[in-house]
Design brief:
The complex is a heterodimer of chains A (332) and B (738). By secondary structure, chain A is of the alpha+beta class. Chain A has eight helices and 14 strands. Chain A is globular, with a radius of gyration of 19 Å. Chain A starts with 7 loop residues before the first helix and ends in a 13-residue tail after the last strand. Chain B has four domains: 84 residues, Alpha-Beta Plaits (2-Layer Sandwich), CATH 3.30.70; 167 residues, DHBP synthase; 111 residues, Nucleotidyltransferase, domain 5; 176 residues, ATPase, nucleotide binding domain (Nucleotidyltransferase, domain 5, 2-Layer Sandwich), CATH 3.30.420.40. Chain B contains 23 helices and 29 strands. The chains are: A alpha+beta (332), B alpha/beta (738). The structure holds fe (iii) ion, magnesium ion (MG) and zinc ion (2 copies). The site of one zinc ion has 7 residues of chain B, from helix 3.
C-alpha cells in the first residue's frame, strides 16, 4: 500500500518495476526517468508540449475546501504549471461505483468545469464508466493535463547553490484536512487549500532564467518536494523551521496524530527556486498576484548531495528525510 | 655480594596491550639496563612490542615488566626461551615488520609526576597548565595522522626549547620521545577571553578565571578534546541560569572535582582506582544530600563526577573555594561539542572563555561509567578509552560499521581488531552525521582499511544508514544489514569471545524484522544469525515519536488493551499537552500505529502511571527517573508473567498498579515493576544451556538486573563497550566473522 503514498516507496517502485519495462521513455524532452511532475515533447521554436497524468482517489470525496473534482482538475494542471507551462487542455476518465449519487457526481463535474473555465482550459475529451458495487471505492478520477511551455523548463535539476527557496503560502492544509476527516474529527478551522497555482508560476515567468525550478508539494509534502530538489540538483538544501508558513491548527493536529507536519500535502501551493538576485522582486510579484503569505523558507547549498536540513527553532540542524509510508519512531 | 654463578639466559618476549604511544619502550630499556641485560625492544605490527633480553637477571626483568603502572596495559605476554646471541647493550630499534598498523593511543589524564611539577615552585614547569609527559596528556585528540610523531600532531607549531629538547632526547628522562612535551617557554599559551573573544589582560588568566567562577559567572574552558562549560555547582541561581542559557531544562550536568577527597564530599561509594585512573571517566555515584544544587541532576540519585584531568582544570579548581564545579560539555543544541573558539562564542552561553591555542584535531567527549550489579559499565566510551582497538577471538574481514542513530559510535575492522570511534552523538543531526563520517574515513585511511563490507542498521530512516550506503557505493563494498538487537547481543558476545549465547536485549527503539519497533527481546545468536526466542507483549506506539516524547500515550495503549483505561483517563489526559482532545486522538490512532515491544518505552509508561515523569526532555528521562525513584525500594511480589514466548508487561503493570491502589509506597511499586521485568526476561532463558548475556540501553537498570540475577546465577554485561547503542557497531561487525 505504501507504494502509492507518494514518498520514497513510490519512487523505488517506479525505478524498479516500471522503468526497465519500456524501451522508449522519452521523445527528446523530459521523460519517464526524469521523475518530474510532467513529461514534455519539443514542438519547435524552443517550445514544449507538456503533459501530465494522475489518478485521484480521496476518501471522503467531499471535504472542506473542495471535492475530488476540483482536486483532479487542479492537480494535473498544477503538475503542468510547475514545469513552466501554461495549462491549455484537460482530459478525464471517471470511474464511479454503482449506486454513487448522481447529484454528487454532478457537483464533482461542476467543480472540474469551474477550474477549467476559470483558466480558459479546454476539456478535450473524457470517459465515464460505472463499476459494480464493491469493486471500487465510490469514485476514481484520472486526468490528463496539457500545456505549452517556452524554455527554460522549470525542472528540478536547475537549482544551484545560493538559490533561494520560496513558498507561496501556508503548507499542509490539504493533508491535515483529509487526515482529520479520516479520523472522524470535526475541525471547523481546517480546510483544504486545493486550487490552481498557474497564476503564481506565471507571475514569476517574467524573470526568465532566474526562476529555476517550481514544484507543487503534494504527496509527501514539503519534505518530499525539497528532498527531490536536493537529489535531482545534486545539492543540499537548508530550510529554516521558523520561516515555513504553516497554520497552527495544521501543526497541532499533525503532531497529535503523530504525523510529520512537513510531510502533509498541499494542493494549492507552489515552491519556487529562484536566483538570489530576484528574491525580493519575486516575493513582491507573488504578493501582487494574491499569494500574500509568500515567503523565503531556505536556500540551496553546495556540499552533501541530496540532504535537506532543517534549522530548528533552537538552532539544531535536523535532517529532514523523505517521508516513507509508515510511521516509524527513531528515538531509542 | 654473593658471587653469581648463574647461566646467561635469553628471552624473546612479545607483548600485546596498550604498549604503544605510552612510553613503554623507554621503560623496557631502563629496566633492561637496570638489570644489566643486552638485547632490544621494538614495535612490531599488530600494535605489539617485541623484546629480546639476555643476561643473568632476566627473571627479575620479567617480574618488573609485568608490574609497569598504567597507562601501560599488558594484555598478553608471550615468552619464548632462546639461546643468547651475545648482545652487549640494550637498544630501542626502529619499528619493523610488515603491516605496520600501530594503534592510535587515547588521551590520558595528567599523571602524578606532571601534577607535582606544576605545583612545585622550584620546577621549571611550575603552574604550566598544559604539562604532559610520555605517560600522560593528549594523544588521539591532537593526532593528524599516523605515525604518532610530533610533526603529525597539533604540537608541530611549537618547536622545543633547548631544555625540552634535552629531555626529549635523553633516554633516562621520563619525557624521552614524549610527542606532547612542552613547557612555559615553548608550549601553547593559556588566555582568558570575554564573550566576544577578546583577550582579557590579566597577570594570570587561570587565577582570574577561578575568581570569576567563584563569583557565579559561566565559563567555557578548553580542555583536551573539547570545550566545557563550568559553573558554580552549589548555587541554584547559577545552575538555573546555565540551564536557561543552554536551553537544557532537566538533563543532568556532570561535575569535576579537584581530587578524590573532594569528590567524596559530593558522592558516596566512589571507586578510588577508577576515579584516579589515566582514563579519568565521569563516574555516576550516589549523591550526598545537599552537597550541590538540586538542579544539577533533578530527580536523580546518581550524579556524575570526574577528576581534574588536565593541569589547566587542576589549577583552576585549586583556586576556587569549593574545589569542584559543573563541567559539562559545551555543545550547542543538536550539535557536537565545540572544539574551536568560534563555536563557543557563537553558542553565546559563556561569560568568559579560558582558552589555549593547542588545536583540537579530534573531538573527544568525556567517558561515562556507572555501576550495575558488581561491575562497572560504560554509558559512554570515549576519552581515555577510544580509539583503543578491541581485539576479538575471530578474524574479521576489512569492514566498516555505521552503528545505529542516537548516541552513535561507528567502527572499522581488520585482522582480529575492531576500532570503535569515540562518542559521536545523535546522527539525526547533520553535524553529528558529518562528524561520524569524518572519523570513519580517518580511521579507514590511518589503518589502510579497504572495506569489503559496510554494515548498517535495518531502520529505514536512520541517517547513519544513508551514510553507510553512500560510502559502500563509493568504496565498492557490499552492504550488510544487521538487526538492532542482534547487534546488541553480539556486542557482548564479541567482548567475551562467545560464539553462541542467549541474550536479553532491552532498549528504547530498534527496527524489528516484522516492521514493529522492538526493544524487549530475548535472542539466540551465533554471531552471524539470530533467532527471536521471547519478547515483551506488543503494545501500540500511538503517534510514533510523539509517544516517545509523551509516554502517557503508551500508557493509554496498554490500559486500553486491558480494558482498564477508564480509571486512569483523567490523569492520562492531564499528562498530555493537548489534554482531552489529544487523549481522544490517541485512542483514534491506536489501530494505525506501530507495534512495539520496547522495554524502555514500557518503563516510560510506568513512570507516567506512577506520576513520576510526564514528558521526556532528554533521552531515557522517564525510565531513568523511574529507576531513581525505586532507590531503596523492595519487591512487593515476584510473579511469572511469561506466556509462551510473550512476556506480559501489560498484566505486570496492572498488577503493580493494584498494589499502588492498596497504598503501597511509590518507591516499592517502581522497584517491583523493574525487578519483575528482569525476573520474567530471565525466566525465558533460565533452562537454556548456553552462556547468558544482557545488553541494550536499559541493561544498566539496577532493579531489572537484580530481577535477572534472582533467576540466573551467571549473566554477563559487556566490559569493554557500552551495552547501549554505543556498542552496536562492534556487534554489527562480528556478524562478519570468518
Ligand atoms: Fe538500542
Ligand atoms: Mg505533483
Ligand atoms: Zn605526565
Ligand atoms: Zn620547552
Amino acid at each position: 500500500l505504501a507504494i502509492g503514498s507518494g514518498g520514497k516507496d513510490t519512487e523505488d517502485f517506479v525505478k524498479r518495476f516500471i522503468l526497465p519495462l519500456f524501451k522508449l521513455r522519452s521523445l527528446g524532452g523530459v521523460g519517464l526517468e526524469d521523475m518530474e511532475d510532467g513529461a514534455t515533447i519539443p514542438i519547435g521554436d524552443g517550445k514544449h508540449l507538456v503533459i501530465s497524468i494522475d489518478s485521484y482517489t480521496v476518501n471522503p470525496p467531499f471535504f472542506p475546501g473542495g471535492n475530488i473534482g476540483k482536486l483532479a482538475a487542479s492537480g494535473s494542471l498544477n503538475d503542468v504549471a510547475v514545469m513552466g507551462a501554461e495549462p491549455k487542455a484537460l482530459m478525464d476518465a471517471i470511474i464511479v461505483e454503482e449506486g454513487f449519487p448522481l447529484r454528487d457526481l454532478k457537483t464533482i463535474l461542476n467543480s472540474m468545469a469551474e477550474v477549467a473555465n476559470s483558466m480558459d482550459v479546454a476539456l478535450l475529451g473524457g470517459d465515464t464508466k460505472v463499476m459494480p458495487k464493491g469493486s471500487i471505492d465510490k469514485i476514481v478520477i484520472a486526468t490528463v493535463g496539457i500545456g505549452i511551455a517556452e524554455e527554460p523548463l522549470l525542472t528540478l535539476d536547475r537549482a544551484r547553490p545560493g538559490d533561494k527557496i520560496i513558498v507561496t503560502g501556508p503548507v499542509g492544509d490539504h493533508g491535515a484536512t483529509i487526515l482529520a476527516l479520516q479520523f472522524n474529527l470535526k475541525v471547523e478551522t481546517l480546510k483544504s487549500d486545493v486550487r490552481p497555482i498557474w497564476s503564481a508560476v506565471r507571475a514569476l515567468r517574467k524573470f526568465g532564467d532566474n526562476l529555476r525550478s517550481a514544484k507543487d508539494p503534494t504527496r509527501g509534502g514539503l519534505a518530499m518536494a525539497l528532498n527531490e530538489i536536493a537529489e535531482r540538483s545534486g545539492n543540499s538544501i537548508v530550510v529554516y523551521e521558523d520561516a515555513i508558513p504553516m497554520k497552527n491548527e495544521v501543526r497541532t493536529y499533525a503532531e497529535m496524530l503523530g504525523v510529520e507536519p512537513l510531510a502533509l500535502a498541499s494542493e494549492g501551493q507552489a515552491i519556487f527556486v529562484v536566483d538570489p538576485s530576484i528574491e525580493e522582486e519575486a516575493l513582491e510579484a507573488l504578493r501582487k498576484e494574491g499569494y500574500e503569505e509568500a515567503r523565503t523558507i531556505g536556500e540551496v547549498k553546495g556540499g552533501k548531495s541530496g540532504y535537506v536540513v532543517l534549522k530548528t527553532r533552537v538552532g539544531g540542524l535536523r535532517i529532514l528525510e523523505k517521508p516513507i509510508g509508515e510511521l516509524v519512531p527513531r528515538i531509542c | 655480594m654473593r658471587e653469581v654463578k648463574e647461566m646467561k639466559k635469553a628471552y624473546l618476549i612479545k607483548v600485546k596491550g596498550l604498549v604503544q604511544g605510552v612510553g613503554f619502550r623507554p621503560d623496557v630499556a631502563r629496566l633492561a639496563r637496570k638489570y644489566g641485560l643486552g638485547g632490544y625492544v621494538k614495535n612490531v605490527s599488530g600494535g605489539s612490542v617485541e623484546i629480546w633480553v639476555e643476561g643473568i637477571q632476566v627473571e627479575n626483568f620479567l617480574d618488573d615488566l609485568k608490574k609497569l603502572p598504567p597507562p601501560i596495559e599488558i594484555e598478553q605476554l608471550d615468552v619464548i626461551e632462546a639461546s643468547p646471541k651475545g648482545f652487549e647493550d640494550f637498544r630501542i630499534l626502529p619499528s619493523g615488520g610488515a603491516g605496520k598498523r600501530s594503534q592510535v593511543p587515547p588521551d590520558f589524564a595528567i599523571c602524578e609526576n606532571c601534577l607535582k611539577e606544576i605545583l612545585n615552585p622550584f620546577s621549571r614547569r611550575f603552574r604550566y597548565a598544559l604539562n604532559s609527559c610520555a605517560k600522560c596528556g593528549p594523544r588521539f585528540s591532537m593526532i593528524k595522522m599516523l605515525p604518532y610523531d610530533r610533526e603529525n600532531t597539533s604540537m608541530a607549531p611549537y618547536p622545543l626549547c633547548p631544555e625540552c629538547e634535552r629531555e626529549y632526547s635523553s633516554i633516562e628522562d621520563r619525557r624521552y620521545h614524549a610527542q606532547g612535551i612542552s613547557c612555559n617557554r615553548c608550549g601553547p599559551r593559556v588566555t582568558l577571553r570575554d564573550s566576544d573573544g577578546k583577550t582579557v589582560l590579566v597577570r594570570d588568566p587561570i587565577t582570574e578565571a577561578a575568581k570569576l567562577l567563584e563569583e557565579g559567572f559561566i565559563l567555557a574552558i578548553k580542555g583536551m578534546g573539547g570545550y566545557h562549560l563550568a559553573a558554580k555547582a552549589t548555587s541554584d541561581e547559577v545552575v538555573l541560569e546555565l540551564r536557561k542559557r543552554k536551553n537544557r531544562p532537566r538533563k543532568p550536568f556532570a561535575l569535576m572535582a579537584l581530587n578524590y577527597e573532594v569528590a567524596l564530599g559530593i558522592v558516596k561509594d566512589l571507586d578510588r582506582d577508577l576515579f584516579s585512573s589515566p582514563e579519568a571517566p565521569i563516574i555516576l555515584a550516589p549523591k550526598r544530600e545537599g552537597a550541590v544544587s538540586e538542579w544539577v541532576a533533578p530527580g536523580h540519585e546518581l550524579i556524575g563526577v570526574m577528576r581534574a584531568y588536565t593541569g589547566l582544570h587542576y589549577l583552576l579548581l585549586m583556586q576556587t573555594k569549593e574545589k569542584f564545579s559543573i563541567m559539562t560539555s559545551a555543545n550547542p543544541t543538536g550539535k557536537p561539542t565545540c572544539i574551536d573558539l568560534k563555536c563557543v562564542l557563537e553558542m553565546g552561553v559563556a561569560d568568559y572563555v579560558l582558552d589555549h591555542d593547542r588545536e583540537i584535531v579530534h573531538r573527544v567527549d568525556d567517558s561515562v561509567i556507572r555501576r550495575t550489579g558488581n561491575s562497572y559499565v560504560f554509558l559512554r566510551r570515549s576519552r581515555g578509552y577510544a580509539p583503543r582497538w578491541i581485539e576479538v577471538r575471530w578474524r574479521l574481514p576489512e569492514a566498516l560499521a555505521v552503528g545505529a542513530e542516537l548516541q552513535n559510535v561507528g567502527a572499522v575492522s581488520f585482522e582480529n581488531k575492531v576500532v570503535m570511534t569515540q562518542y559521536i552523538g545523535d546522527t539525526d543531526e547533520l553535524e553529528n552525521l558529518e562528524f561520524l563520517e569524518k572519523e570513519l574515513r580517518w580511521f579507514v585511511e590511518q589503518y589502510s582499511v579497504e572495506p569489503s563490507f559496510v554494515v548498517v542498521d535495518k531502520h529505514p530512516l536512520y541517517n547513519s544508514r544513508k551514510l553507510g550506503l553512500t560510502i559502500a557505493e563509493e568504496m565498492g563494498s557490499e552492504v550488510v544489514e544487521v538487526q538492532h538487537h542482534h547487534a546488541h547481543v553480539n556486542s557482548v558476545m564479541a567482548d567475551l569471545g562467545l560464539e553462541e549465547a542467549v541474550g536479553i536485549a532491552i532498549d528504547g527503539t530498534g527496527y524489528g524484522e516484522d516492521g514493529a519497533i522492538w526493544g524487549g527481546e530475548v535472542i539466540y545468536s551465533n554471531l552471524r544469525g539470530f533467532e527471536r526466542l521471547c519478547h515483551l507483549r506488543y503494545y501500540k506506539l500511538p503517534g510514533g515519536d510523539r509517544a516517545v516524547k509523551y509516554p502517557a500515550r503508551i500508557a493509554i495503549s496498554i490500559l486500553h488493551e486491558l480494558g482498564e483505561l477508564d480509571r486512569f483517563s483523567e490523569e492520562l489526559s492531564e499528562a498530555l499537552p493537548g489534554k482531552e482532545l489529544e487523549f481522544e486522538l490517541t485512542l483514534k490512532t491506536l489501530n494505525s500505529s506501530p507495534n512495539s515491544s520496547s522495554l524502555g518505552r514500557l518503563l516510560d509508561a510506568a513512570s507516567v502511571l506512577l506520576g513520576i515523569s510526564k514528558v521526556r526532555t532528554y533521552e531515557g528521562e522517564p525510565a531513568m527517573l523511574l529507576e531513581a525513584t525505586s532507590f531503596g525500594g523492595k519487591p512487593l511480589f515476584k510473579e511469572d508473567f511469561v506466556k509462551g514466548n510473550l512476556i506480559d508487561g501489560h498484566e505486570l503493570i496492572l498488577r503493580a498498579l493494584m498494589e499502588l491502589e492498596r497504598g503501597a509506597r511509590i518507591k516499592d511499586v517502581a522497584y517491583t515493576i523493574q525487578f519483575n521485568l528482569g525476573y520474567n526476561f530471565a525466566l525465558c532463558i533460565r533452562d537454556m544451556e548456553l552462556p547468558k548475556v544482557i545488553s541494550g540501553g536499559a541493561a544498566v537498570n539496577q532493579p531489572f538486573y537484580e530481577g535477572v540475577k534472582d533467576v540466573l546465577k551467571e549473566v554477563f554485561l559487556p566490559k569493554r563497550v557500552p551495552p547501549g547503542d554505543g556498542g552496536i557497531s562492534l556487534g554489527q561487525l562480528v556478524t562478519l566473522r570468518e
